[in-house]
Structure formats: C-alpha cells, structure tokens
Amino acid sequence: MASQRDVKNRISSVKNIQKITRAMEMVAAARLRRAEQRIAALRPYAKALRRMTHQAAAAAGAEVASLPLLQEHDPQRNVGLLLVTGDRGLAGGFNSQVIRAGIRAGTDLAESGLQPMWFATGRRGVSSLTFRGRDLAGSYTGFTDRPAYADARIIAQDLMEGFVAGHLDRVDVLYNAYVSPLTQLLTRETLLPLSQAVFEGEDEEAADATPSGPKALVEYEPEPEELLHHLVPNYVEISIYRALIESAAGFFGAQMTAMRNASENAGTLIEEYTLQMNRARQAEITQEIMEVVAGAEGLS
C-alpha cells in the first residue's frame, strides 16, 4: 500500500490538473458562444447565396458551359479532398473522425480508379496526413480557432485554380458541422463542379419554401451567365468559410465537453485517493496502537 505522503502528492497533482481542465472548459465555453453567434449570422446568407447560384445556373441553361467552374470534367481522374480540422487537440475525437473519414474517402476513390489529392486546414489534419504518407497539395494552418473570410478566399482560390487548370476534376470538403456542444455532425459536401453539389437539408428546405401555385417569372439583370461569373466564386468561398466556422464552433463544443468530462473524472479520482489516504492513515494509527499495546504487555 502506498504511504500517506505518496497519496497526498497524487491528490495534489490531480487537483492541479483539475484546475487546468476547468479553466480550459470555461475558455472553450466563452469562445463557443461567440462562434455560435457567427454561425447564426452566416447560415441564412450562405443558404441564400447557394440558392441564388443554383437558380441562376438553371436559368442560364446551356450558357453555363462557357463558365470553367461549372463545366463537368469527363472523365474524372483527380478528386480534391479538403479536410477541415483544428490547430489544437484536447477535444476528444473531433479531429480524428474527420481524418478517418478522409482516409476512408481516399481509399474508396483509389479503389474506384480515381486519384485523391489532399488539402487540409489545421495542424492536426496536416500532421496526421503527412505522418500517414499523404502528399499534401495544400495546407492551411494558424487560423482555425477564429477563421476569417480572407482565409476561406485563399483556400477557395487554390481549389478553383486547380479545377480550371484541369488538375482537379472534383472537389469535396469534409468537416464537422456544428449541431450542439455535445454533437458535431461529420459532413461531406461536393463544392465543384456546381452541378454535382448537394447540400444536406437544403433540398427539403427549398421544397418547403416553394409555393404550390404558379411560380413568379424572374428577370435577371445582367444576364444569368454574366451574373454567374461573380456568384460562383463567391459561392465556393462562402461554402468553405461556412465549413471553417462550423468546424471552429464544433471544436470549442467538443473541447468544452472533453474538459468537463476530464474535470469530473479528476474529481472521482480525488475521492478515490482521499479514501485510500484515509485507509493508509487508519493503518498507521492501528499499527502504532498495536506497538504501544505490545510494549505495555512486555513491561508487565
């Protein structure tokens, strides 16, 4: 059995760790509230821009063939996979589930005769893919806690340039969509080409919002194809920016939950060590009493 001093040292160490985890939980909770506000402000705009882009593409008809970002590449050979992770850990399985899903997606593409090309945001994703021997076509770090629109524009520019140049035939993004502090939904979306882009839940929302009566005639000024020249790049940028914002909020939610669980586990461990220390103290007292009694009997 460990001595009383050893158990006290263990209790002191666990209490220090508990203070750190509680502080990290409070910091993550404060950052999560700000991230939730950014999501609430961004989601309506992102959905409206996506819907407008799809409607303009449908109105343009055959004219969309003149836009490089809307052209489908046939046959498809190279598929870009953008994995959105965090710069830091201590968030449970938040980063690992995106990385595992990306690795599975790359394996499935390779088995289908396609060549995956890897892009990653966040140090966790970059280091994990590099460790697994994947050559990164693009890596972006240092901003995942509070991403800016300029960061999304840089990523989108690289992806769009690769698609237009023919280096990429399709672009998919994998990220953790924010649902609640306890839930992050692993999401995979196709960004390019636009005709293959499918966004979970938006089709149902569009169906609910579509009136059952006659549809209004929409007139575009300028023409839809000219409007798409501006809409499509913005559409790609805002889609990536939304993924970054959703991932940031999901990370803080996962970290807050993980630190809360760590604090609770530390409290349980402190209780167990305290009980162990009390038993050690009782054993020492019992031993001293037995020695006194034995000494008294020896004198008598």
Which terms would index this structure?
62% helix, elongated, 300 residues, alpha/beta, 6 helices, Helix Hairpins, Pyruvate Kinase, Chain: A, domain 1, 2 domains, single chain
Shape: elongated
Mean pLDDT: 84
> What is the total number of structural domains?
2
The CATH class assignment of the largest domain is Alpha Beta
Please trace the helix and strand order, writing H or E for each element: HEHEHEHEEHH
Question: CATH architecture of the largest domain, please?
Answer: 3-Layer(aba) Sandwich
- Strand-residue fraction? 5-15%
Oligomer: single chain
> What does the radius of gyration come to?
28 Å
| Total strands | 5
Q: In angstroms, what separates the terminal alpha carbons?
A: 33 Å
Number of helices: 6
Residue share in helices? 55-70%
State the CATH topology of the largest domain. Pyruvate Kinase, Chain: A, domain 1
> What does the main sheet amount to?
5 strands, mixed
CATH superfamily annotation of the largest domain: ATP synthase, F1 complex, gamma subunit
The largest sheet has its strands arranged as 3-2-1-4-5
Enumerate the spans where pLDDT stays under 50 for 5 or more consecutive residues.
Answer: 199-211
Question: How would you explain this protein's 3D organization?
Answer:
The protein has 300 residues and is of the alpha/beta class. The protein folds into 2 domains: 4-19 and 258-299, Helix Hairpins (Orthogonal Bundle), CATH 1.10.287; 23-208 and 218-256, ATP synthase, F1 complex, gamma subunit (Pyruvate Kinase, Chain: A, domain 1, 3-Layer(aba) Sandwich). Helices cover 62% and strands 13% of the residues. The chain has 6 helices and 5 strands, in the order αβαβαβαββαα. The chain has helices at 4-60, 94-111, 123-131, 149-165, 202-209, 224-299, and strands spanning 78-84, 115-121, 136-140, 170-180, 183-192. It has a 5-stranded mixed sheet, with helices on both faces. The longest helix is centred in the last third of the chain and has 76 residues, at 224-299. The protein is elongated, with a radius of gyration of 28 Å. Residues 199-211 have low confidence and may be disordered.
